[in-house]
Amino acid sequence: MKADDLRRLERSIQWLEERAKNHGLDFFEMRYEICPADVIYAIAGFGMPTRYSHWSFGKYYHRQKLDFDLGLSRIYELVVNNNPCYAFLLDSNTVIENELVVAHVLGHSDFFKNNARFRFTNRQMVETMAATAERFRRYEERYGVARVEEVIDAAMSIQEHVDPSWRARREEPVSRQVVPGLADGADDSALRKTKGPYDDLWSLDTLAGAPPVASSAAASDPTAGGATAPAIAQATAGEVHPPSAGAPGLVKDVLQYIIRQSPCLEDWERDVVSVIREEMLYFWPQLETKIMNEGWASYWHTELLREMELSGQDAVDFARLTARVTQPNRFALNPYNVGLAIWRDIERRYGREMMFMVRECDSDTSFLRNYLNQDIVEECDLYIYERKGETWVIAERDYRRIRDVLVAQRVNGGFPTLYVVDSETRQTGCLYLLHAFEGQELDVDYIDRTLPRVYRLWGRPVTLCTQIDGRAVEFTYDGSRVLKQAV
Predict the structure, then answer these.
(1) Which residues form the domain of 27?
(2) Contact partners, residue 160, CB within 8 Å, separation at least 6
(3) Neighbouring C-beta atoms of residue 208, cutoff 10 Å
(4) Whole-number mean pLDDT of the chain?
(5) pTM of the prediction?
(6) Would 332 be classed as within a structural domain?
(7) Number of domains into which the chain is organized
(8) Is residue 39 situated within a structural domain?
(9) What are the pLDDT digits (tens) for 351-392?
(10) Nearest residue to 349 (alpha-carbon basis) of 377, 383, 375
(11) Which DSSP string corresponds to 320-380?
(12) What is the pLDDT of residues 312-351, one digit of tens each?
């Protein structure tokens, strides 16, 4: 970037930050880095500026960078939920493009800081990941790259199976260090710490018989609702229904259960799995708020740049770039497009003060459920399509049906919900997983490839109970092969 362009950008950053604050945005202290494409796409591949090495990051980098080199896609910026907040700008951007990007990331930073879903995220994650990368490097030197990668592969195969709910995260662990004897069922209270004046209220859940990890006595007591997995399958007459949240004996956070109870993991392996779990919990709010977050940032970059004094060409470039980013997609939902349309509709109907309230309290599911309407569906050209014979046709345009489909796609981040059946696991030593079937069957090939990786973490047979063709089916990996049997 030329010196004159850099000076202009510095002045624009100062003006944009001041103007954003005047509008009520409350963002973290900002750090801006202008980077070449190789650096931008490396950060995109790793997901963060500093992170441990893994082949999957390189695969993602190669795919994204190849698209950029072929002119198929372009990353204009990256922003990191951190305090201070880091924004990385592409050095080949024009000045007006970088000014738009700065206004856009100010919206993201405000959202990161104020949305309730992000309240438990690590605000020093850049530094945490840098320390993690160094610790993993030492593990590789001591135990070998192949062995460390094997544990990472296994943990990443089920990394989405955590419990990101507020109830589960209200008490954060004091440390990731393994408590001696924990895998043998020792008390895990050393991992908890008291926070805030409402702990007496939170403790009512435990008094009601729904602790995060039920004791074996409570889990096996039929009067407490802790039936073993085979009993669950029999009681449902061949169907696996979603269990109620917090049901006794069912543990949603599969990774945490393995960390605490696995009989085979060494301390350094527990640390590796713990890191992957913590990183998933850090990224989870971004899965829950993608439409809101991108729409919020797009709204504010539009508002702020409209107030700037732009030359004729800059105004045209600004309008062209915004239109390109927020245009409807024929085959998939564009979160920039839908999010921006909903935010504008909220402003038109309820005012800007309501926008800030929604920004603080909602996630994509409530955002779509409460504010998507027929006008927005028509404006964004949303529809459900299906295949009839050899032709793809539009099947539905009613906002209620579209809303329900979009909300259903975002339940649990779009991933299947699994529970550890604690009672069965304690009785047999086999890790027993129950799929909360909600109409969508699991990919059998994926099950066959994933269970051996879970076995690597548990060290004993692993069973998954799900529903295939209307019948309850158990898949068990015993260390040599995956066995399938109807229940």
Answers:
(1) 3-114+290-362
(2) 280, 413, 415
(3) 10
(4) 85
(5) 0.83
(6) yes
(7) 1
(8) yes
(9) 999 999 999 999 999 999 999 999 999 999 999 989 898 899
(10) 375
(11) HHHHHHHS--SSS--HHHHHHHHHHHHHHHH-HHHHHHHHHH--HHHHHHHH--HHHHHHT
(12) 999 999 999 999 999 998 888 999 999 999 999 999 999 9
366 is written with which tokens? 């409530």
Count the Cβ atoms, other than its own, within 10 Å of residue 186: 12
8 Å CB contact between 475 and 482: yes
**Where do we find the tokens 């997609």?**
329
**Are residues 467 and 473 in contact, defined by beta-carbon separation less than 8 angstroms?**
yes
Range in 211-220, 321-330, 358-367, 454-463 the model is least confident about = 211-220
- Say how many CA atoms lie within 13 Å of 98 toward its Cβ: 23
Q: List the structure tokens of 126.
A: 């850049």
In this structure, is residue 304 part of a structural domain? yes
**Are 435 and 467 spatial neighbours (Cβ–Cβ below 8 Å)?**
yes
Rounded to whole angstroms, how far apart are CA atoms 358 and 296? Answer: 11
> What pLDDT is attached to residue 71?
85
Residue 352's pLDDT is 96
- Lookup: tokens for 432: 């027993």
Q: What angle do CA 350, 354, 355 make, to 5 degrees?
A: 105
From CA 225, how far away is CA 296, in angstroms rounded?
44
Percent of the chain that is helix, strand, coil (3-state, to 5):
55, 10, 30
Helix (H) or strand (E) holding 238: none
Residue 377 lies in a domain: no
